[in-house]
Design brief:
With about 270 residues, the chain is of the alpha/beta class. The protein contains ten helices and seven strands. Strand 5, helix 7 and strand 6 form a beta-alpha-beta unit.
């Protein structure tokens, strides 16, 4: 993460300058890249995650580049944890301008008839209930011009690419995020609070790397996943972060209820 900051220099052009941002799952992968990029463009970034060491590294990288960030331990599946974090943000900065609902997990790789209720609940608790908790407690402290960005997936838009990769519960959870996005966008449009979703394709993150490793041949799995995208490669976390930056900025003031694939052409097929 430090290398990314150093390569791109210090604070950017200020596309979100002064905005107070909460990035859930902000310690690594897409969340970490998003936290760094938004801070480079002038945001005050709260990195919320359970991974304390990695979260501290992201904050250190931001601060060493002249940015403003802090880490807070956050379990999005716990409403008490979410409520505490939002209260801390308001106490420190008086408001919350941008919520990036990025925290998520892939869950168990099984056909649906083999999934236990506990396994199902764990995915839904993080991927769906977590978005609900964060949105519920962010909305009351948000003002006109605020932005909520939900991370869904290409697999919230289409079924799994292969019967060899059964993630039915994950896909159901990401589909739910899309419908929550659309409903909330309509519900809060009168308050000028925008709600949008991004659907990444396969991106080089720790979660995706774990999926490749579980196949038994990570390199072959990675190459196969790259071939699923017309551009012939996997995305990088920064590719998604730039989409989040746009939706967080006032440049996207007329964008709400949108579901935007950033997927190398995957869903265009």
């Amino acid at each position: 993460m430090t290398e990314t900051v150093e390569q791109n220099g210090n604070l950017g052009t200020g596309r979100v300058r002064g905005k107070v941002v909460l990035v859930t799952g902000g310690a690594k992968g897409i969340g970490g890249a998003t936290a760094v990029l938004l801070a480079r463009h002038g945001a005050k970034v709260v990195v919320g995650d359970l991974a304390e060491n990695e979260g501290a590294e992201v904050v250190d990288a931001i601060q060493s580049a002249g940015g403003d960030a802090l880490f807070t331990r956050l379990d999005v599946a716990s409403e008490d944890s979410v409520q505490r974090v939002v209260a801390e943000i308001v106490k420190q900065w008086g408001r919350l301008d941008v919520l990036v609902n990025n925290a998520g997990l892939a869950g168990i790789q099984k056909p649906i008839h083999e999934v236990t209720t506990a396994e199902y609940d764990r995915v839904m608790d993080v991927n769906v209930r977590g978005v609900f908790h964060c949105t519920k407690h962010a909305i009351p402290v948000m003002q006109a011009g605020a932005s909520i960005i939900n991370l869904s997936s290409i697999y919230g838009l289409v079924g799994g690419a292969s019967a060899d990769s059964p993630y039915s519960v994950y896909q159901a959870s990401k589909g739910a995020v899309i419908m929550m996005t659309k409903s909330d966008a309509m519900m809060y449009a009168h308050r000028k609070i925008r709600v949008n979703a991004i659907c990444p394709g396969f991106v080089s993150t720790p979660m995706v790397a774990g999926f490749f490793e579980r196949t038994g041949d990570a390199e072959a799995a990675r190459a196969g996943a790259a071939r699923l995208h017309p551009l012939g490669c996997l995305g990088e976390p920064e590719d998604i972060a730039y989409g989040i930056l746009y939706l967080a900025s006032d440049e996207a003031r007329f964008v709400t209820g949108a579901v935007i694939p950033i997927d190398g052409g995957f869903t265009a097929q």
